[in-house]
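Workshop exercise sheet. Pairs work together: one partner reads the sequence aloud, the other fills in the structure field after running the prediction. Swap roles for the next sheet.
Pair: D.N. / O.F.
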Amino acid sequence: MFRVSVRPVGLLTVGGSAPASVGPDIVFTSIYGKGGRSLYIPGASFKGVLRSAASRVARSYGFSSCGQVRPDLISRAHGDGLCDVCKLFGSPSRSYLPVVFFSDLVPAAKAAPWAVTRVHIEDSTLRALERGLYSAEVVTGVEFVGSVRYGEDAISLLPLLLLAAAELRMDRFGRASAVDLKLEDTDELRSDLASEWHGLLDELGEWLWTR
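Structure field:
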């Protein structure tokens, strides 16, 4: 196991659509308890963006990737055997379970979101859609923390996991956000990595972007 810290670079939105009558169109993922509302980044969401990042960089570093993210297309892509990305993160078939597991990421301090107005951009034309305004809850300056666990079957693929983490710091988190991240409590992870990857691990032990 090792720990991961994530913080926004700019404004961060993690959530889904909600009825307009309850506030913004997109609300930040939350749980509600006796202490009120608490924001968090679901482990599944963090895993999903890391999986996409791994798919983008895998082949450049000698790992295999089916290049798919949709479950139906992933299943069709593995006639010749499971790719490294799906070995690491799992595939829709229950025969191929993931070998790395992510906790939810929770704020290190109280986080209060606020709403901003954004414009829908059509992917094919990169143009604003007519009447495409929507509101979304965002946070900034908040550090989210969680943990990552892995099994013995993941050890040969740990470099791919680190490469995905490094790639994520240079790309989008979802459609409209960006994040920085760093890894902590990595002594066990270091011992499971070949020495050629220790430099990358050291880099991931520090924030990339300064505030």
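Discussion prompt: The CA atoms of residues 73 and 114 lie 37 Å apart. What would you look at next?
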